[in-house]
Amino acid sequence: MGKFAIKDENGMEQYFDGLAKDKQELILKAKILVYECEGIESEIKQWFRTINIAGIPLNNQELLNAVFSGPFVTLGKEEFSNSLNSNIQKWDAYIAAKVNRQEFWECALEWVSKDKANIDGYMSLHRYDKNIKEVKTYFNSVIDWVSTVFTDVKKEMRGLEWGRLYEQYNKKPYNPAKVSQAVKKYYSDSSVNNHKGIFEYILGGEKDTKLLEIRIFDDVIKHSTYEKQTASAKKSGKSNCPNCAIGHDANTKKIWKEEEMDADHVAAWSKGGSTSKANCQMLCRTHNQAKGNR
Ligand SMILES: [Zn+2]
Prior knowledge:
The protein is mainly alpha-helical.
């Protein structure tokens, strides 16, 4: 009693004790319909999903907390859903979550159970545990690992799949000073479109350039390169695709249309080539695809 304020008819917030006697009576004598439901776990889950339609609906983790209520959930919420926990500021740099909607708790469970789809089963298995040691230890290992490997905190780190990346790369040794240099290098490279991909790119040994979404040449560069190549190709009687021109098939003299060609980095970006006019050539589709890497 006295825990929640309610709004009176004038919109004023009042606690129970401050209400007029007749209003208090009204509340105390109000009849409330209570359903008592019994059933197996899956039936209980179904119940929660059925009644979860009024007000602000519970999200998936809130539903699971309700279904698996017990000491394990209580301890989990104390640690991960407690806005007074001073660690939240640190976690917030890596995890995009709202503490009051059970999202850090959900993340911790997802990491320890390796997949969001496994949370359900994990909670069911640990429902009556009197501690959350395994969840907490695993969660902290991931956070410690990320913050050790990447010493600079970037806003693009927030919400990446750190649980998966930890599983994939935590056994590999990294030199934090070198990693930091690499992060700086890719952040300042204007060809790198996807800054979120930089971290996994570095973890994977700087090989998978797809993660970085390397910038492609803009239309102005493409068009002027096409014009230049085509003019000199016509003069020399060879194909305007330099790779076709040196080939031995029917295409050695073929003049491709602009829309039949793609821009290519002469020196691959991964080998230091820039996304500038000087490093652009137009190739026919076949030859550009054959070249593959950027
Ligand atoms: Zn070609």
